[in-house]
Design a protein that fits this description.
The protein is of the alpha/beta class. It is built from twelve helices and 13 strands. Helix content is 29%, strand content 14%. α2 (121-129) packs parallel to α4.
Length: 426
């Protein structure tokens, strides 16, 4: 990708030391900044380029790179790094859409087309990791917006971030839809000689036409599977996020069987799956898309998500039951999505308990979290890899975060056997 035309805003404060921006093209015209961005501290300039028609990139100097996850979160990690805000992948279901409203931009087109770039993310992160109080906990990348979206081909923020994490002795994970990950695989392999590195590829749709409709800015599924293979060939135990599973669009037995077959053939070791959830911002955008593209499903989606961001418990149980035999068939270890109403309630209780726990005690702040999901089945031998990951990855468990239950199915991580489900789930 060539960054052939750039445009500077009329407001370009002096950059901090070591973070000088390139001069804009003399022939360029000013780019229009999104409302509210001029009040954003650290804004350097807003740029456009023909390779990204209709998009604007707002380059900022970040004061911090490490983000602490709230204690009440159900996520299995405490720290994240997000070098970008907004995402050109333009996935209609993206849960992070509402975060753009904090910048006085909308959660729809602005999220897809107005991308904030923390151009000094690697330098700031290295400084934060060098602080004596940093405890080298697991850091997750790609949990909000994609670090390997197309603009990364120009900005190249990830090599510096990877290097900073590895040199500080900090284990980390990367979740992406971007095939730009292949560019950094040699660097990630080097990092994995120093720290634990987990790689995950998000692949939700295996039908090309539907994939381009629902994720119009992403690489095609075949290219992502090839990236999984490239990482696996280097010894990584790659996880594939088969999510969101969208009711009546991607949840048939044939569709899930084909998805798992393709994932296994690509060399992945593990799958995390989960039903679609629609938080405010994403909900409105996705349901408008359903109205346009699949009006026959509109009333069903409206009913399912009218009072909750999550698919019904009944549907999620049905999906678990449909997935289990397919996972066994393809010999894949699997975890269910941790972002559920039940997991969130448990996380809130855990956070309350941690407030009173003694330092260093089980459940006290500072304990390491990492990895993805709750393990519900395994079709592989546990063991290490060339890059130090074993089993399902850091923080992987042998049962639900809510504990084992009586009457569970043997060998399926304590998930209870399900009663026959009523035909109408959705």
């Amino acid at each position: 990708m060539r960054w052939t035309t750039e445009a500077a805003t009329s407001r370009t404060p002096e950059p901090a030391s070591g973070a000088d921006a390139a001069e804009p093209s003399p022939a360029s015209a000013p780019a229009e900044a999104a409302p509210g961005l001029f009040s954003l501290r650290g804004l350097l300039r807003s740029v456009r380029t023909p390779e990204f028609a209709g998009m604007t990139f707002h380059e900022v100097l970040a004061k911090s790179a490490l983000n602490k996850v709230p204690p009440a979160s159900s996520m299995p990690f405490r720290w994240t790094v997000n070098p970008y805000r907004g995402c050109s992948h333009a996935c209609v279901y993206c849960f992070a859409r509402s975060t753009h409203t904090y910048l006085d931009m909308d959660a729809g087109r602005d999220f897809d087309r107005q991308v904030v770039v923390k151009v000094n993310a690697a330098e700031v992160l290295a400084a934060e990791l060098a602080r004596p109080r940093w405890s080298r906990e697991h850091v997750a990348l790609g949990t909000n917006t994609d670090p390997y979206q197309r603009a990364e081909g120009h900005y190249r923020l990830m090599p510096g971030i990877i290097t900073a994490l590895a040199e500080s002795g900090t284990p980390f994970s990367v979740l992406t839809k971007g095939t730009l990950l292949r560019r950094d695989l040699p660097l990630l392999a080097q990092a994995a000689e120093q720290v634990e590195v987990d790689l995950a590829m998000s692949i939700a749709v295996f039908d090309d036409k539907l994939q381009q409709a629902v994720e119009p800015g992403t690489p095609r599924t075949a290219a992502r599977l090839a990236t999984v293979r490239a990482a696996a060939d280097l010894g990584f135990r790659v996880t594939v996020f088969l999510m969101p599973v969208m009711p009546k669009l991607t949840d048939s037995r044939a569709q899930l069987d084909e998805a798992l077959r393709s994932i296994r053939e690509a060399g992945a070791a593990r799958v995390v799956y989960g039903a679609l959830h629609l938080r405010p911002g994403a909900r409105e955008w996705f349901l408008a898309w359903i109205d346009r593209e699949h009006p026959e499903l509109s009333s069903r989606y409206q009913r399912m998500y009218a009072g909750s961001s999550y698919a019904s418990a009944r549907y999620r149980e049905w999906l678990d039951e449909r997935m289990r035999p397919l996972l066994r068939k393809h010999g894949l270890s699997a975890s269910a999505d941790e972002d559920t109403p039940e997991a969130r309630r448990f996380a809130r209780l855990r956070a309350q308990r941690e407030k009173t726990a003694a330092p260093g005690a089980p459940g006290a702040p500072g304990g390491r979290r990492g990895g993805y999901g709750r393990k519900i089945g395994a079709g592989e031998e546990a063991g290490g890899s060339a890059h130090g990951a074993s089993g399902g990855g850091p923080g992987d468990t042998t049962g639900s975060a809510l504990g084992r239950t009586s009457g569970s199915t043997p060998g399926l991580g304590g998930i209870p056997a399900l009663e026959p489900l009523v035909p109408t789930l959705f």
